[in-house]
Write a structure and sequence with these properties.
single chain, globular, 17 helices, Spore Coat Polysaccharide Biosynthesis Protein SpsA, Chain A, alpha/beta, 8-stranded mixed beta sheet, about 45% helix
Length: about 425
């Protein structure tokens, strides 16, 4: 309860938004940001059609949000959504899956966006679980208002947290609904985007990176304890899911819930700077779709292997330690951001190899890895055609099978990533909890 009090005092988004007392059987909260969404009711229909969990209740929090400076047409749509969503909730009184509509139409422009909307809902969900005395056995689930879910959604997530008692959070298996794309061009663009996402994760796993998990905002769930420990959800306008899960992964034992499926929409959109909608739109406008070069992952693989073999004391020698055999690319990266001192700290407090490795991957986390990948892209490893990258990936991990079409490669990657990845994140030092960004 001390951690709850600390979180409520330091990080909470605002006062309580739901006055109704929760069920004492409440265990899961589904948080859904809703901004200018035409099909939110389809998402709610899907959740209510999913199988309930015996003797367990869930709540669905629909956060209808807008900025104080949102366009007039958007604000009109959001107000209509509020009216319709309240009516929807009042007509569907399922005690095991209560729907609460949260109006948030006056968010300050500086932070208004999906991150803040998620935070509002997740903070309220945290309160609800606390009132139900479920902080130690509950979970917060993130979904988007353009998604549907498989009928085993609630059961799979509940069982996952029941069975994996050490996991602080998980990513869920997802598959974009390509059949909903209005044209073949749109369908190929959406398939290419999902191939890019799966290629990125698969290539990082091949490289030996321990935090190689999907970070999709509509397909993730966390324990309340982990949520509080890492400062809750951030207020980023986009990419909030990546930064949030990166912090959760630092706690160790991050996992995947692969026994259900989230189905995001493949629609094109310009509402956020990046993400599915923007990527699909960009792919539709390009004559050739590209992704990170395969050779950049080979560079990361060699760098990580070498770093893990190092004597931690060598790291303390810093830039002047010319005998250390870093690649020219990695040395240039360390120089560019004055990272030598940060790398040296990984070895400073390492009492043994295990501690050194934990320190290393607490520094070289998902964010640092992404920065290095972008550095490589700008310094000799330019983006490559997606098909070329997928061919290289397949040759590396399944050389006996020829490359097919983009759609068949996507099916192969979906199937491959719906089986558990045996490598788990390393447990970090206890001092590595981070402040909210």
């Amino acid at each position: 309860m001390k951690r709850l009090a600390h979180y409520l005092e330091r990080y909470l988004a605002g006062p309580a938004l739901i006055t109704e007392a929760p069920s004492q059987k409440l265990r899961g909260i589904v948080v859904i940001p809703c901004y200018d969404e035409p099909d939110w009711a389809t998402t709610l229909d899907s959740l209510l059609s999913a199988q309930p969990v015996l003797e367990v209740d869930h709540e669905i929090l629909l956060v209808v949000n807008a900025s104080q400076t949102s366009p007039q047409a958007v604000m009109k749509h959001q107000k209509a959504t509020l009216r319709e969503a309240h009516a929807y909730a009042s007509q569907r009184l399922d005690a095991s899956r209560r729907i609460h509509v949260i109006p948030s139409l006056d968010l300050a422009p500086k932070h208004a966006g999906v991150g803040w909307a998620r935070k509002i809902g997740m903070d309220e969900g945290l309160r609800r679980l606390a009132l139900a005395n479920a902080l130690d056995c509950g979970y917060l689930i993130c979904l988007d208002a353009d998604c549907t879910v498989r009928e085993d959604y609630f059961r799979a997530i509940h069982d996952h947290f029941q069975q994996d008692i050490k996991t602080p959070g998980c990513s869920l298996h997802f598959e974009h609904v390509l059949a909903d794309a209005p044209s073949q061009k749109h369908r190929l663009a959406a398939a290419a985007y999902e191939c890019h996402l799966r290629y990125y994760v698969e290539a990082l796993r091949f490289a030996g990176f321990p935090h190689a998990y999907h970070t999709i905002g509509s397909a993730m769930a966390v324990r309340p304890e982990a949520y509080m420990k890492q400062g809750g959800m951030n207020r980023r306008k986009a990419g909030e899911d990546f930064y949030f899960l990166n912090k959760i992964m630092l706690l160790g034992n991050f996992s995947e819930c692969l026994s259900t499926v989230v189905y995001p929409s493949p629609r094109a959109s310009q509402r956020v700077p990046f993400g599915t909608g923007q990527a699909v739109l960009k792919n539709m406008q390009q004559s050739q779709i590209t992704t990170y070069a395969w050779n950049s992952f080979l560079e990361i693989k060699a760098t990580l292997a070498y770093l893990q073999q190092q004597n931690p004391l060598n790291l303390l020698k810093g830039r002047d330690s010319h005998h250390i055999g870093y690649s020219e690319a990695f040395q240039a990266y360390l120089d560019s951001g004055d990272q030598w001192h940060a790398l040296g700290r990984c070895g400073k407090d390492a009492r043994n190899v295990s501690t050194y490795h934990r320190n290393l991957f607490a520094w070289f986390d998902g964010f640092q890895c992404m920065k290095y990948l972008h550095f490589l892209r700008d310094h000799g490893y330019p983006d490559t055609p997606l098909k070329e990258a997928l061919v290289s990936l397949r040759k590396a991990i399944r050389p006996s099978t020829p490359f097919g079409t983009l759609q068949t490669e996507l099916l192969w990657l979906q199937k491959r990533q719906q089986t558990p990845w045996l490598s788990r994140c390393l447990d970090p030092p206890k001092t590595l909890t981070q402040k909210n960004g």
